[in-house]
Amino acid sequence: MARRQDADTEITPELLLRAYACGIFPMAESADDPALYWVEPRERGVIPLDGFHVPSRLARTVRSDRFEIRIDTDFDGVIAGCASPAPDRKQTWINARIRELYGALFDLGYAHTVEAWRDGRLVGGLYGVRLGGAFFGESMFHRERDASKVALVHLVARLRTGGFRLLDTQFVTPHLASFGAVEVPRREYRVLLDAATAGDGDFHRWPMLQPDAGARALAALA
């Protein structure tokens, strides 16, 4: 279900957080469309935090610490990467209003990034919104193989360590399904959402410090 929001209607960060608490999130038709529309899928994508699957090849990459994982150091770089065209994504729904709104949530401490760096370059990552014990994954990108996947592994390890109860992916793609993502009917999702947002999650309980960050992330998922 989607409801279009006129470009002139003011959407504030506070309104955006209330929408997330109700199971609704905004999207745009394209990067060039100034309007947003509210989305509430009939089937919601979630990754059960106790059922996250790390393929063996990816586990070796995580354990190798090929990428340096940083948290919340370059929000603008991450959202720009997510908005850039890619071979499997010719268009993006991230328009100027999305960047502005989520940038404001980042400044308020509600939006977070998990970033993969290599040789001083941001080569992949993801961003999302934290509300209570729920984390809403928004988008991810990579410029090197496995960079976004490694960031996702570190995100889930951080959420499990921090006591989160829900990882929302909005939709399920074949890529996310390989990690254990499933579709949940709207009514069931609302029960999960209410329980998660009523609790609390500490995104910074476990700082990912080098070295051996990958091994410790995998251990947290065991």
TrEMBL record:
Single GO biological process annotation from the record: protein catabolic process
Signal peptide: none
Reactions catalysed, as given in the entry: L-phenylalanyl-tRNA(Phe) + an N-terminal L-alpha-aminoacyl-[protein] = an N-terminal L-phenylalanyl-L-alpha-aminoacyl-[protein] + tRNA(Phe); N-terminal L-lysyl-[protein] + L-leucyl-tRNA(Leu) = N-terminal L-leucyl-L-lysyl-[protein] + tRNA(Leu) + H(+); N-terminal L-arginyl-[protein] + L-leucyl-tRNA(Leu) = N-terminal L-leucyl-L-arginyl-[protein] + tRNA(Leu) + H(+)
Subcellular location: Cytoplasm
Keywords of the record: Acyltransferase, Cytoplasm, Transferase
GO molecular function: leucyl-tRNA--protein transferase activity
Family assignment from sequence similarity: Belongs to the L/F-transferase family.
Protein name per UniProt: Leucyl/phenylalanyl-tRNA--protein transferase
Organism: Alsobacter sp. KACC 23698
Gene name linked to the record: aat
